[in-house]
Amino acid sequence: MDPLNVFLQFVADDGLNMNIVGNIIDNLIQPLPEIDNLIHAQRQEAKTRNAEYFELTIPTYTDDQFREHFRMTRITFEVLLNVVGNHIQNDQLNINIPLNKKLLFTIWLLSKPESFLAVGDRFDIPTSTGYGIFKSIISTLAELMPQYVQWPNAAQQAISSQIFEERSRGIQNVVGAIDGCHIPIKQPVRNANDYFNRKQFHSIILQGVCDHSARFIDVFIGMPGRMHDARVFRNSRLFQMLTDRENPILLQRQHLIGDCAYPLMLNLMTPFRDNGHLPAAHIRYNVRLSSIRSIIERAFGLLKVKFRRLKYLDISDPGFGNTIIAATCMLHNFIIDNGEIEDYNERMNDNDDAPVIDVHEQNEVQDRFGMQEAIEKRNAIVADL
User: Fold this and answer.
1) 102: helix, coil or strand?
2) Other residues' Cβ atoms within 10 Å of the Cβ of residue 147
3) Is residue 207 scored above 90 in pLDDT?
4) Where is the DDE Tnp4 domain (predicted)?
5) Which stretches of the chain are DSSP H helices?
6) Which residue of 27, 180, 191, 232 has the smallest Cβ count within 10 Å?
7) What are phi and psi of 16, to 5 degrees?
8) The pTM is what?
9) Strand ordering across the sheet containing 268-269
């Protein structure tokens, strides 16, 4: 029984005047004037702090403060604003809200796992309006992604190869590193089982290839989390381009590098599978390969640290999730292209688990496209080390 009812029953049994008791209770539960004033003052302070945040507060930020909140310097933001403005041209959505406010609002939402209500309160934008702005800007950034995530030309490939060779102390002709990353999402309304991955949460897979600077040179977004890395790779346009003998995107001597989840191919070098009895030369190759392959894990880590919304997309539509991921990949490269490469203190490695190997998928790829050339190429690299 509720303690208050017990007390009232006790009072009734003793024949006390209930009106008197009621007054006593009212006095006890009424907040003290000092506490009431303090609560009121805190509410007023919160309102004052958020009032005209875009108009008055942001302009007072130092360069470091602006970069901390919006992941780029003011100069880079102005460049981004021009790019977005030129792409949109006729922005008929909420014309009373300036484009720079919409863009800052969207970047804030990407950068911090805060609710639309909280961010809308900060920017003085109603929640319903905020959803529309966010979707519009995100769609624009995603449309711009192909301009900023592009396969490198011959000169760019040569630079990456040289730097990868220096970092690995001998592995030549590496153009980029490939891996997959799980972006957690809310359980989808349809096909929930397909998106439930081996790590026991629902996710969208982002397959990425990056160069020596952790800049994405290819992304494949949207496969459900249950799918293995090798199957995702098989479904990607990158796989088709790597296996196109008439118009190859890499020379025979060039290659990407991946972990054991990927099939060994002429243009994709992977580690020797460790059976506990590897010779020293193979171990040396594996260690040096791993030292440069970790750059893709760093790229994923930087992406999630900068844009914390990717740590959990609270959306039921995986299609819009794909758009958000594409927008962040565009921003990731855009920031690097403007000379902003930052070291974060947080742990960068986003894929600490051992890769899951789909032997059937690997064998199918290797049987179809041949394995002997790839084996001979990898053995030649080992001999050179």
Assistant:
1) helix
2) 12
3) yes
4) 178-333
5) 3-13, 18-29, 33-50, 63-70, 74-88, 99-111, 116-123, 127-148, 154-168, 229-235, 237-242, 280-306, 318-337, 359-369, 372-384
6) 27
7) -80, 155
8) 0.82
9) 216-224, 203-210, 174-184, 255-257, 268-269
> How many residues are given for the chain?
385
Q: Show the tokens assigned to 186.
A: 């809310």
User: Residue 54 and residue 69: Cα distance in Å, rounded?
Assistant: 13
209 in Cβ contact with 256 (< 8 Å): yes
pLDDT in tens, 250-276: 999 999 999 999 999 999 999 999 888
pLDDT bin (cut points 50, 70, 90) of residue 38 is low
* Domain residue spans of the chain: 53-147, 150-344+365-384
Residue located via tokens 């769609």: 139
| Structure tokens belonging to residue 195 | 């998106």
CA dist., res. 243 & res. 379, Å (int): 21
Only one residue has tokens 């949460």, namely 201
Of 334, 333, 323, 326, which is closest to residue 219 (Cα–Cα)?
326
Query: Cα separation of 261 and 239, whole Å?
Result: 14
